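Figure caption, in words: inputs first, then the predicted bound structure.
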Amino acid sequence: MIIAIKHGAPKGEVERFAAALEKQGVKIHFSEGASQTVLGLVGDTTGIDEESLMAHHLVEKVIRVQEPYKRANRLFHPGDTRIDIPLPEGGLRSIGEGKLGIIAGPCSVESRDQIVSVAKAVKEAGAGFLRGGAFKPRTSPYSFQGLGCNGLDLLLAAKKETGLPIVTELMAIHQLEVFDEVDIIQIGARNMQNFTLLKELGRCRKPVLLKRGLASTITELLMAAEYIMAGGNSRIILCERGIRTFDSYTRNTLDLSAIPALKRHTHLPVIVDPSHATGLAWMVPSMAKAAIAAGADGVIVEVHNNPEEALCDGEQSITPDTFSTLMETLKKYAEFEGRSI
Ligand code: PEP
Ligand code: MN
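Bound structure (manganese (II) ion present):
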């Protein structure tokens, strides 16, 4: 971090200011030019608040040369992180470090028949994980809110029948009580900056699928991951799920460039949700392929046995047949790049 001191600031005051900064665990490198003094802060500056520095009467400008996240930073951990998820029948299923995580299933759990039949179909096609929402964040309070605890039980029944680990969304801390057998906790776009929730996830030892907020920057997504990691939980999978732009042709705009950007700045695995990104089932296969080609560590795709009748997000849900065709291509992509599903 570099701090430019205001022209004409009294030397003694600048020295006292620098000494106070050093108490925060950084070394100060003084550079006194003819017209300006510049302080170079060397060491871990993640705990130093840029805004309060800017408010200091001696400070002209603050420039951060390093990212404000530390644990999520690739500088801190140069190799890729792999998240290993234990399988019910023993062994592990991994995401990251060349292993693609393919998560598929309906937007919401609707009935036993629905979730079990979709689970069987996506497993048959080669998916590694089953998704399904039990607690749903809906824009309207009058829309289907998910089956709650009953939905979770049905998801667990599908896990038992297929052996697929399950991914489902947590909306509130108290729901953690019933998430014991959930394999990956999904934090939805709307909760990406629910810092109380993130802190609690830092204390838990389950993998977290952290979705990018609707209007969040890449740095904000990484800072949200940092919240969880600062609490001691490093098992995080990031998910690009489209962001809000001026265009309403698609439900959101899939930011494919977030994949190489995130992969450059963090060691955490990055997956893509082409379903919520586009809102259109016919676009999902193309965008899933694009995501893997761009270096994503997997995809999370909404699959429904009868999209027309779906209680939530039918328009963006692909059928098991389409998913199966997509999987064939994704397997070839993975193989071509020396990665595996
Ligand atoms: C979902 O995965 O069903 C969901 C609600 O996603 P998002 O939080 O990305 O909107
Ligand atoms: Mn959905």
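The pocket of phosphoenolpyruvate (ligand 1) is lined by residues 107, 133, 137, 188-190, 211, 241, 273, 276 (CB under 6 Å).
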